[in-house]
Amino acid sequence: MPLLTFNDCGIFCERADVYIDPWKPVDRALITHGHADHSRWGNKYYLCTRAAAPVIRYRLGDIKLETVEFGEVKTINGVKFSFHPAGHIIGSAQIRVEYKGEIWVASGDYKLEDDGLSEAYEPVKCQHFITESTFGLPVYRWTPQEEVMADINDWWRQTASEGRTAILTGYALGKAQRLLDGLDTSIGRIYTHGAIENTNEVLRKQGVKLPETTRVTREINKKDYPGNIVVATPGAIGQPWVKKFGNASIGAASGWMTLRGARRRRGADRGFVLSDHCDWPSLLEAIDLTGADNVYVTHGYTAIFSKYLREQGLNAVELHTEYEGELAEIETKGNSETEKENLAADAE
Fold it and tell me: Which domains does the chain have, with CATH numbers?
């Protein structure tokens, strides 16, 4: 039997009796990072990196949680587990699993570009690699972060010169902090949606340095917003909450902004292509760096991506899981399946 198998609860290591990122409650769960589709409530025991723990505790409440440092080896019934930087968000990890020379890596979500906040991605050699394919199509090719943030700051500068408010959307954990870190504070003040500011407070307490932000509250005079920027969750757009900012320009930061129609469905005036996941070239590079002959594609464009890998001579299989990649952190008006269908149509 393989060291890791896949069942209706998640990725299972029978030898150690543990799961990796289970989507149903289990006794022992190893967690790659704090996003909702990978870190779920209901497990009896959690193990994650020390850097990921504060946000996971904040999101899940009173849980039994143990932490490890990156690279630290924890042995369970003879199986060696270690966590290695995934570059996705702060504290995110790939989990290396080894037993009697058989080595697997469960990557969770990951990206190769160093964003300056997350621990930089670390390639891990293995025979078996479990990968996402959130943006597993050749159409997805990212512009360097510095160029994207320059465009965002130029857009903010322009809206400020027009006496308008800039509203920039990004999910509360990961994307929002990456955006905040790249904003030019000389342009104006940064306001934040409550969900984002709650996450900021958790991260600041663990030593993450972020620019000064002001939580949006009812007490703030509406006249204070023009010329400044509001970083909000995608789900806030189209809600009454937005009306308080008056004449505003809305920008959306997401890998989905590559596709036609995605900006319109987000209700945005401007789309900025910025993702916390790999683009097509980076996915291929990451797989090559592992040296793995066996690749398991868990979420995203799984059928297309696994087929391409097989054409390159790899033993690649498509797996059906409950991971959702960037969709898990984007609050849409419809459901995830509808959004997936829309995005698939955009990519054609």
Answer: 5-140+276-327 (3.60.15.10), 145-274 (3.40.50.10890)
